[in-house]
Amino acid sequence: MATFDELDTATRTELEAAAFRRLLKHLDDNKDVQNIDLMILADFCRNCLSKWLVSAADERGTPLEMDAAREYVYGMPYSEWKANHQGEATPEQLAALDARQARKKAPSQNESPSQNEPKE
User: Gene3D superfamilies from the entry (predicted)?
Assistant: First the structure.
């Protein structure tokens, strides 16, 4: 049995694409999971996936519209998904997201202040 690193490029790309499609299906099957909850727990959401698709296309010189990427990720126009599936964020969710973002901006607890300073 091969390790992932031993796979040829085409097979590896096919497996990565299949896993991505499965992730999108899983998110589609779980529309009750809100984007803000994904951001709080995993620091990404459906919108991030859309942006990553656009970015990957740009890196390859293939223009991709954000609306088209969102429709692919959401399985419908974004405005429709928002109207039918996105709830209002609660104060608790907003506070949790703010706390997560603050933790990202803070230096790691494993780093000493000198590790953050430029070396001479």
Answer: SMc04008-like
% of the chain residues with pLDDT over 70? 89
Q: Quickly state the pLDDT bin for 107 (edges 50, 70, 90).
A: confident
Which residues fall within 8 angstroms of residue 47, CB to CB, at 6 or more apart? 35, 70
Residue 108 confidence (pLDDT) above 80: no
Tokens of 44: 């990404």
Residue with token string 């099957």: 29
Cα separation, 98 vs 88, whole angstroms: 16
> Distances in Å between the alpha carbon of 84 and those of 32, 40, 70, 88?
10, 22, 15, 12
